[in-house]
Design a protein that fits this description.
It holds the Pfam family GCIP_N. Residues 48-193 form the Cyclin-D1-binding protein 1-like N-terminal domain. By secondary structure, the chain is mainly alpha-helical. 73% of the residues lie in helices and 2% in strands. The chain has 12 helices and 2 strands; from the N terminus they run αααααααβαβαααα. Strands 1-2 form a two-stranded antiparallel sheet.
Length: 331
C-alpha cells in the first residue's frame, strides 16, 4: 500500500475518534443529571483524579506515536484508547451535579471537561497527516488558540479537583483574595500620602521602574480626603483580619459543598467590592458613596455567614464582636 493510502486510513481512523470528541463537546452544555442508585449516589471525587491521569497518559502516548517514523497501528491504538475515555469524562457532569456537589465543583468540572475535549480535538488534528473533518464554529473561534500543553494542564487541574475538592479551590482563591486585599491597602496608603498615577502615559506593559516614577505625580490631600482614607484603611485592615480568621476557623476539612459555595461567593463579592472602592477613591473621591455602601454590605454579609453556619462554634462570639465593630466603623 502506498504512503498516501496509509495516510487515508489514518485520517479515516482519526476522523472516527474526532467525531466522538466533537459530539461529546457539543453535549457538555445540554447534558442531563444522571439518576443513580442510592448505593452509587456518593461517588468519590477521586474518580476525577483517575480519569484525568488516564487521559493525560493516553494523549501523551498519542503525541509520542505521532513523531516520525509514524506507525499507523500505534496512532490508531492510542487514539482509540483516548476515545474510550470520552464517555467516562462526560459522565462526570451527570454524576457531580450542582445540587449534590455544589457550584464550585460543577463549574470547575465543566470548564475542565470542555477544555480537555477541545485539547483532544487539537491533538488529533495536529497528528493527522491530512486535514480532518468535523470543523465546528467552536473550533474556528477557539480551537486554533488551544495547544496540547493546555490539554495536559487541564488534565492536571481535573486531577487536582479530584484530590482536593471544593476546599482546595477555595483555599487557592483565598490566597488570591488576601493578596489583592494587601495590594488594595498599599494602594490606599500611597493615595493617602498624595501619590497618584498618570494613567494616560502608560502605553506599554513594559514600563520600567524609572518610567513608572516619571508617571507618578504627588498631590496634597485635603483633610477630608486624608480622614476618609484613614478610615477606609482601618476597614480594609479589619477585613484582612476577617479573611485570616476565615482560613483558620471557617474552612474545616468537613465543610459541606454548599457551605463552601456560599462562603466563596461572599469572599469573592467582598474582594470585588474592595477593588471597586479603592479604585473609586483613586479616580473620583467625591463620588464614593455607592462603593463604600457596597463594601460595608459585603463585609457584613461575609461575617454573618461565619456566624450563622457555626452557631455552636467557640469562635462564633469572635465573629459576632467583629461584626459589631464593623457596623460601628461605618457610623
Amino acid at each position: 500500500m502506498t504512503d498516501n493510502g496509509i495516510d487515508d486510513e489514518i485520517v479515516e481512523s482519526l476522523n472516527k475518534v474526532l467525531g466522538i470528541v466533537v459530539n461529546a463537546r457539543k453535549a457538555v452544555s445540554t447534558i442531563d443529571k444522571l439518576n443513580l442508585p442510592v448505593e452509587l449516589d456518593n461517588s468519590p471525587l477521586s474518580m476525577l483524579d483517575s480519569i484525568g491521569e488516564m487521559i493525560h497518559q493516553y494523549t501523551t502516548k498519542l503525541s509520542i506515536a505521532a513523531r516520525p517514523p509514524i506507525t499507523k497501528d500505534a496512532l490508531e491504538k492510542y487514539s482509540n484508547d483516548m476515545s474510550n475515555m470520552v464517555s467516562p469524562l462526560i459522565a462526570t457532569l451527570q454524576i457531580y451535579t450542582v445540587d449534590k456537589y455544589g457550584k464550585i465543583i460543577y463549574d470547575r468540572l465543566k470548564m475542565h471537561v470542555e477544555r480537555i475535549l477541545l485539547g483532544i480535538e487539537c491533538l488529533l488534528r495536529s497528528v493527522s497527516p491530512k486535514p480532518l473533518a468535523h470543523v465546528t464554529e467552536a473550533w474556528k473561534t477557539r480551537g486554533r488558540l488551544v495547544t496540547t500543553g493546555m490539554l495536559w494542564e487541564s488534565c492536571e487541574k481535573l486531577q487536582k479537583l479530584g484530590r482536593e475538592g471544593a476546599l482546595g479551590y477555595v483555599l487557592e482563591e483565598w490566597e488570591n483574595f488576601v493578596s489583592m486585599l494587601e495590594d488594595a491597602v498599599s494602594d490606599m496608603e500611597d493615595w493617602k500620602a498624595g501619590e497618584s498615577s498618570n494613567w494616560d502615559n502608560f502605553d506599554s506593559e513594559d514600563e520600567d521602574e524609572e518610567e513608572e516614577k516619571e508617571n507618578t505625580t504627588s498631590e496634597v490631600r485635603t483633610q477630608e480626603q486624608a480622614e476618609s482614607a484613614k478610615q477606609l484603611l482601618r476597614q480594609l485592615n479589619a477585613c484582612k483580619i476577617l479573611f485570616l480568621s476565615i482560613k483558620k476557623h471557617r474552612l474545616p476539612k468537613t465543610a459541606s459543598f454548599h457551605y463552601l459555595d456560599d462562603l466563596y461567593e461572599k469572599m469573592k463579592r467582598t474582594s470585588e467590592a474592595i477593588d471597586e472602592v479603592v479604585g473609586q477613591f483613586q479616580e473620583d473621591f467625591d463620588n464614593t458613596k455607592d462603593e463604600l455602601d457596597l463594601f460595608a454590605f459585603c463585609g457584613k454579609e461575609l461575617a454573618q455567614t461565619c456566624i450563622t453556619e457555626f452557631e455552636s462554634d467557640s469562635f462564633t462570639a469572635w465573629y459576632t464582636k467583629w461584626l459589631e465593630n464593623w457596623d460601628q466603623s461605618w457610623k
